[in-house]
UniProtKB/TrEMBL annotation, chain A:
Residues 39-395 form the Leucine-binding protein domain. It comes from the Bacteria. This is Branched chain amino acid ABC transporter substrate-binding protein. Keywords: Signal.
From TrEMBL, chain B:
Signal peptide: none annotated. Coiled coil: none annotated. GO terms for molecular function: L-isoleucine transmembrane transporter activity; L-leucine transmembrane transporter activity; L-phenylalanine transmembrane transporter activity; L-valine transmembrane transporter activity. One of its GO terms (biological process) is L-isoleucine import across plasma membrane. It holds the Pfam family BPD_transp_2. It is found in: Cell membrane. It comes from Streptomyces lunaelactis. Keywords: Amino-acid transport, Cell inner membrane, Cell membrane, Membrane, Transmembrane, Transmembrane helix, Transport. This is Branched-chain amino acid ABC transporter permease. PANTHER family: BRANCHED-CHAIN AMINO ACID TRANSPORT SYSTEM PERMEASE PROTEIN LIVH, HIGH-AFFINITY BRANCHED-CHAIN AMINO ACID TRANSPORT SYSTEM PERMEASE PROTEIN LIVH. One of its GO terms (cellular component) is plasma membrane. The keyword Transferase does not apply. Belongs to the binding-protein-dependent transport system permease family. LivHM subfamily.
Length: 409, 310
């Protein structure tokens, strides 16, 4: 008897845990059944739970908005768009499992996501084998589109199904170094990264450019993702006499690092890439974050005339979470897929063809339209042709843009 | 090397935090030989309990008033969850093979995380926690103790002292020792062992709540995942000090904290070791230390106090 109650209890607890964790991924994606229309599903893969969920929810909602807008405008006659949003928790293995799941659903003709470059690496080949188009609104690692040897100038596109609407870290890292050295007049920087594909890559590109400009690297250190105590690293920063910190990584660690550097007594700004450009960074970095800097891809969405409608629609959409750093890019990524589907369907007498996935990939490479974030088009590597960047600074508990420019080498 | 005092202080503060959480692992293990892997989540619940208390207080309440109330609120939440877990998840499994409660503990840990994730408002990302304002205490030229660190450095020894007195002097404490030595005999001597076991869970949970408040005050934020890594580290500290030994938990915590802090600062200054230093390697060195200690002294640094178990 004892053992039966044991079994029942274990089962109940485990089931409870599984049910609860499943709640996250099953939201309101039960669209209305629309009779004659063909359903085309746009997959979404992003961290919908966990510490990066603020960004992930923004991505999911923006894609949802794009799909709803397309349905409302009857953008592709005879086609009803739906989204299927999967949670990768910023873990590469989950991303790969999600990619496999999306590939298996024959209604999926394209996917938006993921957030993290490291997750994208594990998804690319799954999508490539199934010739399913993937458009990331946020990946910035150069290797994803230009191959592992991009650093030596030997650029080779590894996967023809992968596209992105965000520009790369080569551009972002150099842009940050130029701003910190030329505009902010910092000459001695301490570089910290989180050992991830995105963070380490960005920190390396930044360091090389900063040295090339004539600056000094006062020291380097690495932190571990999900750790929260960086006080020892912060003391090393202080002891090094650096006048600024560059952090390659995401906002949970970046915010805490900024806070702890200041608590250690070094009143110097922390700069980072788009991974820290989030309101959550400001929450995490405590009181003394005034003057911290970040770069992010594109111009501030709020200032673009092209984004006014997006912002208004998003607000009208009643989404619980803000569109966050990648909302505009996610909308554009989804819209690029919708445009590709439109081209394919139009070329096939208004029906979705049998080899729709292959055709969508081909059509996507030629997409060109004015999106929320400016002109949306892809070059021969699948990279966006849009090289606009912005530096943001923390002022009065908000990110304020201080410099926007189109990057020039 | 002039940052050494500062690095030692960092390590001590981190270690005191590990030690406070480790008490919960070690007491429960000492009495029922169960590794309560949900203890990290008990710590996390303590943090959310404290945050709830803070939110319920009228805005503008001084931290001096708020913190004791937050500790009480956090402790109520974590003790309630821990005792409920004992009653409904672990007690039915008492006498079952050891693997069963271990699996339950892991399931419970995931369930508690998801519970906070799903039902606590805005807990899907980090939630801000009140922070100490003002400058850190300047002790020496090259040593400044941050307020949150001072808080944990003062509170941890006090908690330990109180626990030590309780266990060795009070009637319940002695009953606890007896239960740890031999539960069946203790029961025959008229000790209500069920009550003692609940007490062990409750004390561990209360200490975890204190640690959670210290953690929140230091980092300025808490999140539903924070129990995982800290719970693992605290468990390591408990093993390092000698699981089952309450003083060992504190010693293990401090040793672990110092090892992490010093390895970040100094390993890379050793010639030929540049590649193996810094924050990236701190966990490696902490666990290397654990392995070395367990190889040389399998019972942990202080050893298990109840040595005469059959």
């Amino acid at each position: 008897m004892r053992h039966r109650s044991l079994l029942i209890l274990t089962t109940v607890v485990t089931t409870g845990a599984l049910t609860l964790s499943a709640c996250g991924s099953r939201d309101d994606d039960k669209g209305t059944d629309s009779g004659k229309k063909t359903t085309v599903v746009i997959g979404v893969d992003a961290p919908l739970t966990g510490s990066l969920s603020a960004l992930g929810q923004g991505i999911k909602n923006s894609v949802d908005l794009a799909a709803k807008t397309a349905n409302k405008n009857n953008e592709v006659p005879g086609v009803e768009f739906k989204i299927e949003a999967l949670d990768d928790q910023a873990v590469p293995a989950s991303g790969q499992a999600n990619a496999t799941k999306l590939v298996a659903n024959k209604d999926v003709l394209g996917a938006v996501g993921p957030l993290n470059s490291g997750v994208a690496q594990s998804m690319q080949s799954v999508f490539d084998k199934a010739t399913l188009a993937q458009v990331s609104p946020a990946n910035t690692n150069p290797a994803l589109t230009q191959g592992d040897k991009w650093g030596s100038g030997d650029k080779k596109r590894p996967f023809k199904t992968y596209f992105r609407t965000a520009t790369t870290d080569v551009i972002q890292g150099k842009f940050a170094a130029q701003y910190l050295y030329n505009d902010a007049k910092k000459k001695k920087v301490y570089v910290v990264d989180d050992k991830q594909t995105y963070g380490a890559g960005l920190a390396a590109i930044f360091s090389a450019e900063f040295k090339r400009l004539g600056g000094t690297i006062a020291g380097t250190d690495h932190v571990t993702v999900k750790e929260t105590d960086f006080s020892s690293t912060a003391d090393k920063v202080k002891a090094s006499g650096a006048d600024s910190v560059y952090f390659g990584g995401q906002y949970p660690e970046g915010g805490l690092l900024s806070d702890q550097v200041k608590k250690a007594g070094a009143k110097i700004p922390t700069m980072g890439g788009d991974g820290i450009y989030d309101p959550a960074f400001i929450k995490a970095s405590g009181e003394a974050n005034e003057g911290d800097l970040s770069t992010s891809v594109g111009y501030p969405v709020e200032k673009l005339p092209t984004a006014k409608k997006f912002i208004a629609d998003y607000q009208a959409g009643g989404y619980k979470d803000p569109y966050a750093a990648y909302g505009g890019y996610s909308y554009d990524a989804a819209w690029a897929l919708i445009q590709a589907v439109k081209t394919v369907v139009a070329a096939n007498d208004g029906k979705v063809p049998d080899d729709a996935r292959t055709k969508v990939v081909e059509a996507l490479a030629k997409v060109s339209f004015d999106g929320v974030t400016g002109k949306v088009a892809f070059d021969e590597f699948g990279d966006t042709t849009n090289k606009q960047l912005t530096v943001y600074s923390v002022k009065g508990n908000a990110w304020v843009d201080v410099k926007s420019a189109t990057f020039e080498d | 090397m002039n940052e050494l005092p500062q690095q030692l202080a960092n390590g001590l503060a981190l270690g005191a935090l590990y030690g406070l959480i480790a008490i919960g692992y070690t007491m429960v293990y000492g009495i029922v030989q169960l590794i309560n892997f949900a203890h990290g989540e008990i710590f996390m619940i303590g943090g959310f309990g404290a945050l709830t208390t803070y939110i319920l207080l009228p805005s503008g309440t001084s931290l001096l008033v708020a913190i004791p109330l937050m500790i009480v609120g956090g402790a109520i939440a974590s003790v309630a969850v821990a005792t409920a877990a004992e009653r409904f998840a672990y007690r039915p499994l008492r006498g079952a093979p050891r693997l069963a409660p271990l699996i339950t503990a892991i399931g419970l840990s995931i369930a508690l995380q998801q519970l906070i994730w799903g039902f606590y408002p805005e807990a899907k990302a980090a939630r801000s926690f009140p922070e100490f304002h003002g400058e850190s205490f300047k002790v020496l030229d090259n040593l400044a103790i941050q307020r949150a660190d001072a808080f944990v450095l003062i509170l941890a020894p006090l908690c330990m002292l109180a626990l030590g007195v309780f266990v060795s002097k009070s009637r319940s404490g002695r009953a606890m020792q007896a239960t740890a030595q031999d539960r069946d005999t203790a029961q025959l001597m008229g000790i209500n062992t069920d009550r003692i076991i609940v007490m062990a869970f409750a004390i561990g949970a209360a200490f975890a709540a204190v640690a959670a408040v210290a953690y929140g005050l230091d980092k300025g934020q808490i999140n539903f995942e924070m129990g995982f890594i800290l719970g693992l580290k605290a468990f390591t500290a408990a093993v390092l000090g000698g699981i089952g030994n309450i003083y060992g938990a504190m010693v293990g915590g401090v040793v672990l904290g110092l090892a992490e802090s010093l390895s970040i600062a100094y390993i890379e200054e050793i010639p030929g070791m540049q590649q193996l230093g810094g924050g990236a390697w701190s966990n490696v060195w902490a666990f290397v230390l654990l392995i070395v200690v367990l190889l040389v002294r399998p019972q942990g640094l202080l050893g298990e106090r109840v040595a005469d178990r059959a």
